[in-house]
Amino acid sequence: MINDPQTALNAISGKPVRPDVVQGLKAASEKTGVSFDFLVAEATRESGLNPNAKAPTTSARGLFQFTSQTWLEVFKANGAKYGQSDLAKKIKRGEDGTLEVADGQTRKTILGLRQDPEMSALMAAEYAVANEKRLESRLGREVGPSDLYLAHFLGPNGAARFIDASAKSPDQAAAKLMPAAARHNHSVFFEGSRPRTVAAVYGQVKASIDGTIQKLEANRAVASAEPATAQPVPDSQKLAAARAEAAERRETARQALASQLTVPTGPSLALATSSSGAESESPLFGGGTPRVSLPMPPPLPRQPEAQATNPGALENLMRRVRLSFLG
Hints:
It contains 14 helices and four strands. With about 325 residues, the protein is mainly α.
């Protein structure tokens, strides 16, 4: 089912995505309130959903391609929220404004967390929340997913300049506006050797970010229209249903048999008796089959009771009998 996040991300990526990447993106969205679809779109554009991605020309690493300085800044501000307060405290700002960690091994550990899918997604979400406020303050309007991605890609100040230029001078060369970013991201700012305009780069970003979000939304719409898959019935429920069905069949058979039975009445009602005096099995049924109770014969007509004999008459009768014997 395409509505399953794992299946959806596999479809977006065009290849299997690591399960911990899917879970990390989901967890980050749930914990920060940042859209899951936006995080997927951003990670897809930055790394192709590969948590081990490394940029060849910069220090960018991980699912969201954080450079070392940007990661240290975001981790210092938000690491404690997610159980990393001890490491976050190790990050200090130097006199030149850069962020450093005194101990080399600790610095390596902190920067290594960029390749942890959930931690990387959490920091990307927190960065997006902060950048949304900064951009809206600079631009004086609500910002969309593509604007937030540009803040991740160019930094909030660079994104504000770029978005402003897309409205005021969209035909100027994007590489001229953002020379440092252009040096490290040639394919974004140039088409072969020809520089892209600000409008062209902005359009490319919108097609990528908004396009991924629309694909995810379309996949969910298709999944919601599909009939729900029947859930497997537990064995205990299957057994109870089978027993009930068997009982119903037995009752139906019993009623059918009873309705077909014709019981004789009158003189032929008497059952045959064996030599031992016990009732024999009815020839209608096989051995071991319970007999059907037969109705009792009608009662005999009630005879009128004899009238009570007069004691005096009886005594006279006896006297006559004795006299007849005496002669």
